[in-house]
Amino acid sequence: QSVLTQPPSASGTPGQRVTISCSGSSSNIGTNTINWYQQLPGTAPKLLIYSNNQRPSGVPDRFSGSKSGTSASLAISGLQSEDEADYYCATWDDTQFGGGTKLTVL
Amino acid sequence: EVQLLESGGGYVQPGGSLRLSCAASGFTFSSYAMSWVRQAPGKGLEWVSAISDSGGGTYYADSVKGRFTISRDNSKNTLFLQMNSLRAEDTAVYYCARRSQYSSTWYTDYWGQGTLVTVSS
Questions:
Q1: Cα A68 to Cα A65: distance, rounded to the nearest angstrom
Q2: How far apart are CA A71 and CA A29, in angstroms?
Q3: Do A46 and B111 contact (CB within 8 A), yes or no?
């Protein structure tokens, strides 16, 4: 059972903006930063966002992260077919992961 | 180019042992903390263990504490995970990963391709 709660699934059509939520508590998200990872089918996870809203070089600016209180969100604008993947939030220096959200591009 | 190549996975009976290795290249291995993260079949990510850049600090998830040991050989750019008293619930793909720090927080910036460990009788 993950301490961070994510919706099991999300979907959108190409070009649309979608958001994935990550809900926690004052003892995790409330006092720590959030990182986001993308896992394409059959591959290893990839860093997408670190420290709530920092984007590593090479990650398109279509991806953005935010945090407020005990919740965080990953937003993907201009949705593309290649964005179809599992997305994970993590906190406490990546010792706690959310259960993951499977994003489907319709 | 950063590369992390895991090896040592395989099939083992409950109660058995395995030692995973991760060969690192493309960066100064001794300057980075490292970790192991696993993923059971069809499930999400679970942090297993982490080690400081020098090896002086080691950290474990409660689920593996006392059974798994993380270590590193900075002279050989290699990370290890010794897994003892294996259980069926340890069955997973094990990823070797590099940790980086931003301000006072950590994140995982590179991941290996993973090695599958199957614990079954």
A1: 11
A2: 7
A3: yes
Nearest to A34 by CA among B102, B35, B94: B102
Q: Which residue has the tokens 């720590």?
A: A32
Length of chain A equals: 106
Residue B121 has pLDDT above 80, yes or no: yes
- Among B87, B119, B104, B109, which Cα is nearest to B37's? B109
Q: A61 falls in which pLDDT band (50, 70, 90)?
A: very high
For B53-76, what is each residue's pLDDT tens digit? Answer: 999 999 999 999 999 999 999 999
CB contact under 8 Å between B44 and A2, yes or no, is: yes
A:B CB pairs within 8 Å? 64
> Is the Cβ pair B45, A90 closer than 8 Å?
yes
Residues in B touching A39 (Cβ below 8 Å): 45
Residue B88: per-residue pLDDT: 98
Tokens of B67: 């059974």
Separation in Å, CA B86 to CA B12, B15, B16: 8, 5, 5
Residue of B nearest to A50 (CA): B107
Q: Rounding to the nearest 10 degrees, give the CA dihedral for residues A21, A22, A24, A27.
A: -130
